[in-house]
Structures are given as structure tokens and as C-alpha cells.
Batch of 2 targets.
Target 1
Amino acid sequence: MAEVGKGVNAGKLASNVQKRITRAQEKVLQKLGKADETKDTAFEEEVAKFNKQLADGSKLQKDFKAYLAAVKTMHECSKRLQDCLAEMYDPEWFGKEEVDSIAEDTDLLWQDFHQNLVDNALISMDTYLAQFPDIKARIAKRERKLVDFDSARHHFASIQKGKKKDEAKIAKAEEDLGRAQKVFEEINYELQEELPTLWDSRVGLYVNTFQSVAGLEEKFHRDMGKLNQNLSDIMTKLDEQRLAKKGVTTASTGKSEEAANHNLSESGSDAPKSPAKNETPTVTNGSSDAELPPSVLYKVKALHDYGATDSDELDLKAGDIVLVLPFANPDDQDDGWLMGVKESHWLQNKNLLAKGVFPENFTQKL
């Protein structure tokens, strides 16, 4: 049995070698113009479109994988940045727990984005391209079978034209021609049915791929935008916390200096006397209290800039003099906040319409 197997394999090998030699000879004769070649322009156009489709699909797959690699790199960089913030954020600072939570949510968002891109785009793209190697191999096989068909056709024609008619050889050549034609036509018919369908399928791939990517990106950036806005709000409040602490410290220092200067002036011979009950007091800016509306309680001087964050607040610059007014409803007054109007506005317009609230610790009483 082993000897028979060896004989069969040897015979098949010899047959394959002979087919290659015959095909090579046929191709040479066709190139030299000594043998005609069967042409199918419509099929060649389908093959050209197939090659373009394969090249486009391969490029799309390559670029998409590069995009996924970039997403993964961005995820790693984002995680390191968020971790850095979480590590250096002092526990007593505003929003410490929220900062840690945002770092975790950001990491999960990147993970989901990458995995969804793989599931919804890369896998379908890989499945689409997986069918091309088989079809490409069958196109190459068709080309070989076409050469075999042309070779059998030429061989049959040459025997028929021979001076000596050998009916057995003619019958054998005709049988070989019929078999070669059948094999070629079968594979040719299959490819003519499949190639146009495959060509049309590229539209579905492009639509699904880019719709998936666009939708996933839109959702990712929307969710990431919310996290970034939360983080920005926390940073804003942290800065406000810092400024508030700085304002309290500076105001306390200013009051201590004022008290020291007051004690020093009292100890001197030129210390001013307190005005009598009915005496008009002198104001520090050269104008008298008699010129001011009776509703003014006292004056303060802004020690620091304060940017109004609401329409009912007063915008201050360091050095501004403010006339402090009582609240119409004492219950509306929050601790640490005063109501007033800038002295410059009163001197210019003689009205109190531009009044607003401001933090007391940003000012010093005059």
C-alpha cells in the first residue's frame, strides 16, 4: 500500500510540473503573438475594482488600528495626569473626594471608548477583509485555468490541422479541451457573480464604520466634557477658597496695624480730639459727612480687588472708597457681607442706584 501511495503522489507531482511547463509555454507564445489569448474585458474591470477595494480596505484597517493605538496612548497619558492631580491634591482642599472620583470616572470612560471602538468597528472591519484572501486565490486560479483552456484549445486546433489525421489523438485533445473549458467556466461564473456583490458591500462597511466611530466619539466627548466641567468648577472654588483665606489674613493684619497707629497717635501731643455731639466730623477724603446722604452708616476702603460674580454684587478695585448702607431687610444680610455704593459714584451722580453687596473682609473700615 505504501508503494502505491508513493506512485500516486509521484504521478500527481509529475502532472503538476507538466501543467506548469505547459502554462509557461502558452504564456510565452501569447506574449510573442504566436497564440491568441482569451480576453474578458468586463471581468478584468471587476478584478481591477476588487484590487482597489482590497487596497482601500487594508488602508482603512491600518489607519483605524493606528487610531486605536492613539486612543490607548491618550488614555494612558490622561490617567497619569489625573493620578498626578489626585496625588498632590491636599486632603483639606475643597473637593478632594470629587477630584478622586473624577479621576476614576475619566479612566473608565477611556476604557469604554476604546472597547466600544473595537467591538463596533474593528471586528466588523476584520470580518469584511477576511473574505478577500480566498477570493484573491480563486481569481489567480481562474487565470491559470484560462491559460489551460487556451492551451487545450490551441492543441486541439493544431491536431485538427495536421496532415495525418489521428482520430484517437483528436478525440483525446477534444476531451481535454472540454474538461479545461468546463473547469474554467465554473470558476469564472462563480467569480462573476461574487465580485459585483463584494464591490457593493464596501458601502455598508464605510457607513457602519464611520457612523459607529462618529457616534462613539460624540458620546465620549459629551461625557468627558461633563467631567471636565466638574473639574473646572472644583478648581474655581479651590481658588476662591485660597483668595478668601488670603483676604481674611490680610484684613486681620490691616486692622492690627490700624490699632497700633491709633494708639501711637493718642500718645502724642497732636492727637485729634473726638468731635462734640453736635459738631460735624471731618472725613478722610476731604468731603464732609454733611454732604453724604443720612442713610450712610460709615465708609470702608477696599484692600483687594474683588470681581463681582453676580448681578447684585459690587465690583471693587483696591483703594476704592465705599459708602456702607443698611439693608432694607436685615434678614437679607449674609454674614461677612455689606451693602454699599462707591463714593466716586455718589460724588458724580448724587444717587445710590449703583449699590451692591461685597465681602467685608476685602475692606477696611475708615
Target 2
Amino acid sequence: MALVVRTPRFQLPPASISTTTTASTSLAAAGARPCAGAVRAAASPFTEATSSSRYRRDSWSYAADGYSNSSSSSSDAVAAAAAAAAASGRRDDEIALQLPELRRLLDALRTSRGRGAEGEGGGGGPGRVALVGTGPGDPELLTLKAVRAIESADLVLYDRLVSNDVMDLVGEGARLLYVGKTAGYHSRTQEEIHELLLSFAEAGANVVRLKGGDPLVFGRGGEEMDFLQQQGIRVEVIPGITSASGIAAELGIPLTHRGIATSVRFLTGHSRNGGTDPLYVAGNAADPDTTLVVYMGLSTLPSLAPKLMKHGLPPDTPAVAVERGTTPQQRMVFALLKDLVDEVKSADLVSPTLIIIGKVVALSPFWVESSEHDALKIENSYTTEAR
């Protein structure tokens, strides 16, 4: 079936939407299949590991020794060195460039906390950590509680899949630090993230940990919460709209539907140690009456789809793969399960891509549009051959 490029229901100011994406959307509206490569050229709505937006936000942490943060040329030079280190995978080099400023900030927080405790007669306990879910990308899907936490943070540790639009809500006085992970490059290990959260919370900071989607759905929020609570740190979890709910709603797909799907199952598409097999047993998921939602499953889809069919899921089960769901760069591939791998490969989808498999997918209005688009292509090819 067809690749569909669609601007989501929310509208950003025209200037913030790249001309490449707008042109591709126009092609789709005209019935033409847009060039996947052209769409990929559009700027990512998320923070990529070496993106300029990341280094603008984190520039404070790269200030060179002997210079103040107001020395933009010095900060820019060190940030450029950090970007080069990240691009070549030298994670330790990049962390080393940040250490002096992180230590200075910690010392300043401890000093401030000590003075405050003394002036008030002591007793100023540690800060707190809020694990905040930011949803699939659309900033209008944030909860009010999440917005308040983001606006009041002293320090924000943010992941790759927190959209740039959400990051724009962070207060001017907050310090931001990227701790995102991508395949083959982890800016910080999970243990290092734990220690950063603990160190700044103990120093009295109001720390916000921003995660895409929901912190407790494939977000390792449970690990961070458990670690901090064991250290006596107060942790608040602010849920976010998980990608399954947000993207399904955007596409008009009911995750459950009377007489069609009696349950929904969230699966991780991650593999062990970077392999090609997903982590779960496909036989337990091959239920025609269950909607399957696969997170982070782009690389393991070629292994997953055949296993599902082998274990009894009909090859003609409707499915959709959605890249960058709910953002202006959203792209969707609708296909039958038996064709999904080839269609996703043809469209050259990139991460993050969510996959929904189940009969409910056919209830989406875009399933009909996609089918009609394919039928029109076939009819046009026959007409051309006849001529």
C-alpha cells in the first residue's frame, strides 16, 4: 500500500515547517508518491545526538576553563570540539569537556543551599527529581502538570525523543543537559544518568528528567525511580501520553474496538545486544483479537513479521508503521502484514518509528485513502500500457 505524508491536526506557524515537508505534503494531496529521500532531508523534530540545537542548549556545560559563560567564542570552540567527539563516537572525550562546568554548577548549588539553610536555621533538605513524560512529540499533548514542572526546573536532563517544540518550554534560568541514546551512541550510560540525577538532587536542585512518551513505558523510568528512592531522594512521576495512544489517535485507530480487538499489547522491538531478533516470544503475541503496538521495532521488523505469521497471525492482517508520529514530519506506511517489511524498506523510514499491527488499523480513514491511492496507481499503469 502507499506511503502517506501528512501534516498532523495541530498546526505550527508556517515558518517553522520546512519547505521540503510542505512540498511533500502537497505531492501526497495531489495523489503522487513523494520522494522518501526528500522527506528525510527535513529537519528532525527531535534532538539528534550532534544537532546544532543540542549544542546551543548545552553550551553552558562546554565553557572552557579560564573563561566565563559570556565568552561565546570560547564556548563555541569547546562545543565544536564536543560535537566532533560525538560525531566520531568518542563519548568519553565529550564527557570530559563537560566535567569542569558540571562540577562548578554542583559547587554553586551546594554553596547556595548551605547559605539558605544557615539563614533559616538549617534543615534545607535535598532537592527533588521529577520524571516527566513529554508524549510522542506534539507539544499540545503535554499535561498541565508536565508544563509546570518543565517551566520551574533548575536542571533538565533530556532524552533524544523529546521534541524541540517541547524543549522550547523550558524556563530561561534552567540548565539543560543532553543524556540521549541512539543506536551505537549513548551520550551517557544509564548508571551515569543515575549519578547525575542523584548528585544534583543532593545538592538541592529541582531536577527534571524529560523523556519522550511516558516515563514508565519502555522509558527506564522505573529504574531511575527505584535508584533515587533507595538513596532517599523524593521522586515524582508525571505521566505522558505514550506513543501508542498519541499516534493511534492521530491516525484514527482505536487500539481496542468491540468485536474486533478485545485487548492491546505493547511490545519492545529492541533486540538483545544489538541483534536482529526482538526480545519477546512471537508466539505469545500472535493473537488476531489483540492489537500489537511495537516500540522501537524498525531494525527487528524483518524478523518479527515472519515470526508472527508463523505463529498464526494472518498474513493479511492490517498494519501501519509511523515515523515521527504527531509531528509535522510524520510519515506513515500502511500495508498488510505480509507486505509490511518490503513497504517500510521501500519508504526508507527512519527512527523513531512505531508499528501497529491488528484488524483495528483498517478502521483508520487513512487505510481507505492508502488503498484508493494504490488502486489509482494500478489503474494509471494499465492506462499507460494501453496507450
